[in-house]
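Today's session is about reading a structure prediction critically. Students often jump straight to the picture, but the first step is always the sequence itself: look for stretches that repeat, for charged clusters, for runs of hydrophobic residues. Only then move on to the predicted structure, which in these notes is written as discrete structure tokens rather than atom positions. Here is the chain we will use throughout the hour.
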Amino acid sequence: MSIQFHEETGIFSLTTENTLYQIRADASGVLLHLYYGKKTDTDMSYLIRYTDRGFSGNPHELAGNRGFSLDTLPQEYAGSGVGDYRLPAVQVISPNGSRSVDLRYAGHEITAGRKPLPGLPFVRESRETETLTITLRDRVIGLEVQLKYHVFPGQDVIVRSARLVNAGDEPLLLEKAASACVDFPYGRFDVIHFHGRHCMERIPERLPLPRGMVSFGSRRGMSSHHSNPFVILCGRGATEDFGDCYGCMLMYSGGHLEEMEVDQAGSTRLVSGIQPDGFSWTLNAGEAFQTPEVLLSYSAEGLNGLSRQYHDIIRQQVIAPRWQQGARPVLINSWEAAYFDFDAEKILRFARTAKELGIEMLVLDDGWFGKRDNDNSGLGDWKVNERKLGCSMKELSDQIHALGLQFGLWFEPEMVNEDSDLYRAHPDWALTDPDRSPTLGRNQLVLDMSRQEVVDYLFDAMCAVLDSARIEYVKWDFNRSICNCYSHALPASRQGEAAHRFMLGTYQLLDRLLTRYPDLLIEGCSGGGGRFDAGMLYYCPQIWCSDDTDAIERLEIQRGTSYGYPVSTMGAHVSASPNHQTGRLTPLRTRGIVAQSGTFGYELNPEGQSESEREEIRQQIADYHRYADLIAQGNYYRLNELDDGGDFVAWMFAARDGREALVNLVISHVRANGPFPFVKLRGLKPDARYRLEGGEQVFSGAALMNGGFSFPLTRGDYPAHQLHFTEI
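Below is the predicted structure for this chain, in token form.
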């Protein structure tokens, strides 16, 4: 049993292979957080201390006990307005205008397995999964909070969410409904968050948590390029391979907020959930609101250890079973090869050359539909522009398949141009403020996905295209942030629901399409990595990592992404040199090695390559197929520390049984007469013997992990090394 309730002590113990999470409802019904960390076999309630701290009030029923205060105790889901002055997990306006929420224990249930979340992505159950539901109740306003804990023992992950129910007789107004609240009464932490911008996403930044409040999040109606919904709290001395690390990953693709507060006594509170700015939700009597899930994980083996736990849970329980095993097709995308300037004959020329190189799929990007020769018109009109193509989509698809390639298409379902038949017919289907001119992004507006008729239209329009031809892949783009978030279908009093209802509509559309086309591979995209989150990964097993295809920039982008997400989810392509975003010249070998640490493909004109480059591309594809299982399923290790200031980036994949390893190193700064690049390998068997492919020298696993490996000095721009070790 991974969940146990101890009747004598009232303690809930949630155990995974290596961790323990303990909770207890005290005599007054306050649900206390006792411990989260390395597994012990002890009642951890001895860690709770009571003292009288000035200006920390006491519940009325405990008058006289000045050592008991909600302001100083570690809680499992903090209310608001009743004496805890730290970050709340929930905020509610009751019928009389009060904002007080006082939650007390009202019961629990332990069950095998787990139930799906209606309308939301969720972590799929494993054979070991158990669920704890703890009900908290505010007896005055009738609010019930059902805290859900799903335990995944083998992956060392605990999944949390909250279901808020109006069990009273009058409406309640939610203004904040976090998915999880975790208190750490002891310890000093650094926080690692993942900031960025378009074309430079998920850049890790490590900061010591100061006294007071720190927050990261997105108000953009999307998880965003700018702040990923994933944070790490780690001990001040934690490294890639040693030390305490706690991860908190929100499984949601809309606006989000991650908050941390270090209080007067040095305890740390972490709260994660939907962005509360602009959010409100009316709960009528008997209605419920379900929050997205949060994936919590702890590792005593540093940041690499924490990452591997997230990689495992995402590969095994988030990604759809259809895509958990087996290499995905090596594709070529038409965007950087042609942009909007193409017809069927040009695409077929690309396809013929791509087939000769060993590429397995051609993806036709933006520009195949409606009036769409640039990005100023046509979005929403999902009808094939046969005049531009010179043929039907079926004829194009049939010819591509006749060459032995699969075929994919680009869509941007949630967007509309003012210059489109759809907008002219239904201007109220866009999110626009009725009293203002709308703000444009990429000269487009956002469709109101909260409206069922909009979701139905998109489903029918996309199905008409997908049914008309043989299409195995969809690239699903989302090329602007949301503002003017006003739904013409909601009353004024419920406009605060529009942003979340938008995400529910998007999830519904994805779910309906995948139900109808279960073998369809959908790659998520939002100007690259603007919606790279666990919520989208539930539907899309891979996400275009960034619109920046520069291999040297991708070193930083893909490394930052790897802290929470496996490389099997990272869309990564070899693009042209000079690169279209930076103008940088980078060797084809380097571009290939970087892109192989992802889903792998090409983003260039295949006809523009020399014969020697074509031969190198053939070899890259052959190598990728040879290493595909190791890359997609192996244990991933970053071999540099985040802040080591070195002149190279190194990472590796080790087979789970330790029988082989693939080591990659890219030199970002070649120095005259510089030091030898040097790394220590990970994940090998100490007593095993390994041969480096291409040579006769044999190394012990202990030597490679403890003594390390040095690389020869190299010259030129951005050289790269790839080493394959196999056990003999």
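Discussion point for the tutorial: The two ends are 40 Å apart (CA to CA).
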